[in-house]
Amino acid sequence: MSRTLRGKVAVVGVGQTKYYKHGESPDAEAKLALEAIVNACADAQISPTRLDGFASFSNDRNDAPRLAAALNTKELRFSNMFWGGGGGGTAGAVENASAAIACGMADCVVVYRSLAQGQFGRFGRGPQIRQVSGEAAHTTPYGLMSAAQMFAMKAMRFMHDHGVKQDALRAIAMASYTHAQSNPEAIMYGRPLTQAKYDASRWIVEPFRLFDCCQENDGAAAMILVPAERATDYPHKPCYVLGAASGGPNRSAAPVHNAPDYGSSHFNTVAKHLYAMAELTPTDVDVLQSYENFTGGVLMSMVEHGFCDADEVNDFFKLPNLLAPNGRVPLNTSGGNLAECYMHGLGLTIEAVRQIRGTSCNQIDGAEVSMMIAGPMVTPVSSCIFGAGSTL
Amino acid sequence: MSHYLAPGLPAPAPARDGLDAPFWAALEEDRILLQRCRGCDRFQWGPEWICHRCHSFDLDFAEVVPTGRIYSYERVWHPVHPALKEQGPYIIVLIELPQADGVRIVGNLLGDPNQIVSIGAAVKAEFEHHNDAQPPFTLLQWRPS
């Protein structure tokens, strides 16, 4: 029996709440989670009581057994949390849910993520405390305390090593904003980003300008996974999991910025496992959703997934190459974390499914292979590939 | 010496488990002590309970010469802490210590916050004492040499 997830699991339902600017959700975080799950079940035309597995990531505060109780599920068979923060686990949660289904541990698993920052506070703000200890003691007193500051240091080194120009980051930001202009659900719908607007925007921390940094949002998203052999029982065109991988290279969590492979998004080992499982290469990928916490992370993620060579990024990262429907690698086709919504990457994952269904607001004609890369530069990271039935 | 950043940021405290306590104590005496394994005589940083190379638990702290080179850097413009509201731009550097098996350490690059920073450039340590803090502490800063 081959040890693979390829073709064994399908996504049959996706759901989300309305997306809000951070702190603006009128609903509590737990209510948002429930609403997204109920919407995903409605999309799959199943009762939420049929769910028997729950998988999340990034320390989601909504406890799986509590959600199962609130939804009155008949039984709970799989409750799972992917280690690590910062959205590194979006595809990892899909991977874990798929593994549970492939191994017969559960039959109907929901992957979910919910965020209400008005209720629980923002990410991009330093700690308002008198003392810090542990790893933070070695960074915070020097003014290094936000995600942007943690990751700019890695992107700067990569850009130095490979002569990357700021224009490459700008192309990534503009791709997300361009695609959001055809997505009425996107937070930045009606707010296009021009080259001049990007160039005039303020620095957050070099090499990241304002538009290189993701939003912070309130909302929730969910997707329903079932065994592949049941996929055609549901109303939508099935979207199969072709591969998923997670983790990080040697000592990627070495403290105080001591990861050996430093100028990296941490996908160098993960990507090869992903392609091996999916039995595909980068040239097979029709459309890509790549998690923008910061544009520099997308750049390194795409290099490490083999979409372009590290020393060719200035040629490759040009806006036309990244745009739907005819770019070389259409990127973040619903607006991504930068311009649709920052739902810790689950919004990107849903868009990857829409591309297989053929229902994206920036649809790639005949898309058969759709990839999602989760939060780069943290550890562990994860990525996954979905495919249409024709790829099995 | 004066302090590079405006006052009011969280102060460093030794870890409750004591893992990095010798490092913070040594800075107050203008010395850099980093973790070194007695099993294989090599440095690692940040400190761990085990040597990642030889898996020895026999770990010690050893003095490191106060010179290094810039491995990466960033110039921060957007303040994410109220204490830095009036700070203006400042530079954080990641310093590689070639004489301590290449381990890296985070600090600020002293001098003009708008200076051009070169990855690979040589730097020298300066000990920034916060003697008025309760309890007092020392930060390890860097200046182009």
Describe the protein's topology.
The complex is a heterodimer of chains A (392) and B (145).
Chain A: E1 9-16, E2 20-21, H1 29-44, E3 53-57, H2 64-71, E4 78-82, H3 90-102, E5 109-115, H4 117-120, E6 131-132, H5 147-162, H6 166-180, H7 195-200, E7 203-205, E8 208-209, E9 217-227, E10 239-247, H8 270-278, E11 287-290, H9 295-304, H10 313-316, H11 319-322, H12 336-340, H13 346-357, E12 369-373, E13 381-387
Chain B: E1 11-12, H1 21-27, E2 32-37, E3 59-64, E4 67-76, E5 90-97, E6 103-108, E7 122-130, E8 137-144
Antiparallel strand pairs in B: 2-3, 4-5, 4-7, 5-6, 7-8
Written description of the protein model:
The complex is a heterodimer of chains A (392) and B (145). Chain A has 392 residues and is α+β, with helices and mostly antiparallel strands. Chain A contains 13 helices and 13 strands. In chain A, α6 (166-180) packs across α9 (295-304). The longest helix of chain A is centred in the N-terminal third of the chain and has 16 residues, at 29-44. The two termini of chain A are 17 Å apart. With 145 residues, chain B is mostly beta strands. Chain B contains one helix and eight strands; from the N terminus they run βαβββββββ. Chain B has one helix at 21-27; strands at residues 11-12, 32-37, 59-64, 67-76, 90-97, 103-108, 122-130, 137-144. Chain B is globular. The mean pLDDT of chain B is 97. Chain A binds chain B through residues 124-146, 148-149, 152-154, 156-157, 160, 202-207, 251, 254-258, 262-263, and chain B through 5, 9-16, 20, 24, 44-48, 52, 71-78, 80-82, 84, 87, 89-90, 92, 94, 103-108, 119, 137, 139. β6 (131-132) of chain A pairs parallel with β1 of chain B, so a sheet runs across the interface.
Give structural attributes.
heterodimer, A: 392 residues, alpha+beta, 10-stranded mixed β-sheet, two-stranded antiparallel ribbon, 13 strands, 31% helix, B: 145 residues, 5-stranded antiparallel β-sheet, 1 helix, globular
